């Protein structure tokens, strides 16, 4: 029935897949975050990313960042997880946004509005949600990206959380 298919789809969205993590990847994650920093994302979008329901974060333009980034919840001064940038889309058309709605989760009523300007997708994978938020010191003027590399206590906390994942961990895959 339609309702049982919907329940199955919801259960599948929350499914976590276990993958092997190379211990050297932990160093790469930390080095990437030192270089890239953290992306500030508003709710409900960050919640959807951390729950594995959203793999594209929509922005108005591409960035030069590659590899792993910290995921920061707007207005909380907290790092909630990490993710890997797998690439960026070109500027998407309305038809392309409609066809990829399950990836970006922006409702049609929003992206069809005249003032919508976020047509570029940051494609995310290997999303790791931390069990507890990591506070960071806000940097004046940071509204999209926060440089975390010089905040030793924050980087140590991220390293500890990523390192504690061990050789086998539960990571949301796209």
Explain briefly what this protein structure is.
The chain has 174 residues and is α+β, with helices and mostly antiparallel strands. The chain has helices at residues 2-13, 23-36, 45-50, 94-99, 101-104, 108-111, 152-163, and strands spanning 17-20, 38-41, 56-59, 67-73, 78-88, 120-135, 145-146, 168-171.
How much of the sequence lies in strands comes to 25-35%
Distance between the termini: 26 Å
Q: Which percent range fits the helix content?
A: 25-40%
> Order of SSEs, N→C?
HEHEHEEEHHHEEHE
Enumerate how many helices there are, as a single number.
7
Main sheet: strands, sense, barrel: 6 strands, mixed
Low-confidence stretches: 1-24
Q: Tell me the Rg in angstroms.
A: 17 Å
DSSP strand count: 8
Structural class: alpha+beta
Give the averaged pLDDT, no decimals: 85
Q: What's the overall geometry?
A: elongated
Description of the structure:
It is a single chain. The protein has 174 residues and is an alpha+beta fold. It is built from 7 helices and 8 strands. It has helices spanning 2-13, 23-36, 45-50, 94-99, 101-104, 108-111, 152-163, and strands at residues 17-20, 38-41, 56-59, 67-73, 78-88, 120-135, 145-146, 168-171. A 6-stranded mixed beta sheet has the order 3-6-5-4-2-7. It has a two-stranded antiparallel sheet with strand order 1-8. α2 runs antiparallel to α7. The longest helix is centred in the first third of the chain and has 14 residues, at 23-36. The protein is elongated. Residues 1-24 have low confidence and may be disordered.
